[in-house]
């Protein structure tokens, strides 16, 4: 009887020790589901946050899913299939102007320029934008930020996209590079690393950067439904703080260091190519150095959308952007 009592008492003691510990862990660690619009080196700070344990330091377990297409990311957010979306800010404007009792709010900016490059089929030693006149230009999907920025830059250089060249926009994003490789177009608008891959293979030559030409815009931001932010304010703050840590780390470390940090997310890409792409994006200031989406950038975005004929209505910065969270984690 005494032996049974000792064993039973020991089990009870262990159980009482384990249960509070488990409860404590459940309170400290919160799972956050992210839907990213594509998987790209362009989002390097996000992968740095994952690999360097910045989310873990904040007590977050992040589940990342690639959800191709801005419309699909929005669907995931609105249906609670994802907590946070990483996508272009224009999508929040589209949703807002369609009418919503629970608007999608931009709370942390990740990239602050366009991430595409103009690639020429032929090598051009002294490129000028007017060389696109009379050419066939393989652009991006109509209504998306790459296409809108592309047309904005062309018009900035006195080129009418509808009159001065043959503009192709009916090819799916995933098939644009293969279409160019098979002979379609004299010029193409491409993301990295595909642009550099084509250059290495001799299939094309990078002649200009749309990001440099278009200036700062909230190209890719983290956003969530207003209700999620209100109900999970602490978790959103922790998430934003982790992103800010990663942004600062990327800013203060070399392209080689960043490439090595994010390589696990791009195991099929040579480390030298990852470094080249990171360096190109760092050099043109594509990675935001803090998560604040300011009003000037927001207005520049709407100007670009308006120029492309894709802005349904202007929306005030304060309506769809929350800067308080980003500003608080930077203090």
Task: Report on this structure.
By secondary structure, the protein is an alpha/beta fold. It has two domains: 200 residues, D-Maltodextrin-Binding Protein, domain 2, CATH 3.40.190.10; 99 residues, D-Maltodextrin-Binding Protein, domain 2, CATH 3.40.190.10. The strands form two sheets. Strands 2-1-3-10-4 form a five-stranded mixed beta sheet, with helices on both faces. A five-stranded mixed beta sheet has the order 7-6-8-5-9. The radius of gyration is 23 Å and the shape is globular. It starts with a helix and ends with a helix. The N terminus is likely disordered.
- Sequence of secondary-structure elements: HEHHEHEHEEEHEHEHEHEHHHHHHH
Major beta sheet, strand line-up? 2-1-3-10-4
**Name of the CATH homologous superfamily of the largest domain:** Periplasmic binding protein-like II
Q: What oligomeric state do these chains adopt?
A: single chain
Percentage of residues in DSSP E strands: 15-25%
Overall shape: it is: globular
Which structural class do you get from the secondary structure elements?
alpha/beta
Any idea what the radius of gyration is?
A: 23 Å
What low-confidence regions span 5 or more consecutive residues with pLDDT below 50?
1-26
CATH fold title of the largest domain: D-Maltodextrin-Binding Protein, domain 2
Short description:
The chain has 331 residues and is an alpha/beta fold. It is built from 16 helices and 10 strands. The chain has 2 domains: 28-113 and 217-330, D-Maltodextrin-Binding Protein, domain 2 (3-Layer(aba) Sandwich), CATH 3.40.190.10; 116-214, D-Maltodextrin-Binding Protein, domain 2, CATH 3.40.190.10.
